[in-house]
Amino acid sequence: MKKNILILLLSLFFCACNQTDERKHTTEKKSETVTPSAQTNVITKREKLIGEIKTLMQAMAEKDKPAILAYFNFPLADSSVNFFEVDPIFDAARKANNDRITKAMFDNSFASIYQKTEMREFKNLIKFLKINNLKNQDSVNYDNIIKGDGCYYFYSISVDHHDEVTLTYGTNSNDEYRKSHPDEEEICSEYAVAWTFKFDGKALHFLKHRIAG
In terms of pTM, does the model score above 0.85? Predict the structure, then answer.
């Protein structure tokens, strides 16, 4: 009888051990197959912003009027833009509307505004700037210096701590050219254009436009 009890106890002991090992193995297997942290699959705010900047730049470069108009909240205050003498119809409407710019005004004179503000330079922003670097830094810049040209061409994008994005392009005098042409008074028609947008976490919205030079 005692022998039978001993055999039964040993059987129960080994069974319990096997169940413990099985549970441990199952737990370890589950831990090995746990899906990666959700953080690795979530697009960060800065990555979303970079994507929106690329979309904006592409719209500007391709002269996509409907897409470009969508970034503006009309009517625009006169103080938010720096383009003047666009065309006779636009200028007259602007004066009659107390310098406020409606969507219809912008739409009707889009070709003139596009040309006056040098929006075609967005093609070079795309060409020269490494936009993805904004993931780890707050600005990207590039100076395009062409040998034998009195100007050099600069391009930049900056993001401040308020999530305001400023895209800048323009020209400046090429110092190397100036040194080799000391007799020339003006070697470059210098100017700079800056577009500033606000990122709300989802999309970009126009804030202001500036031209200097």
Answer: no
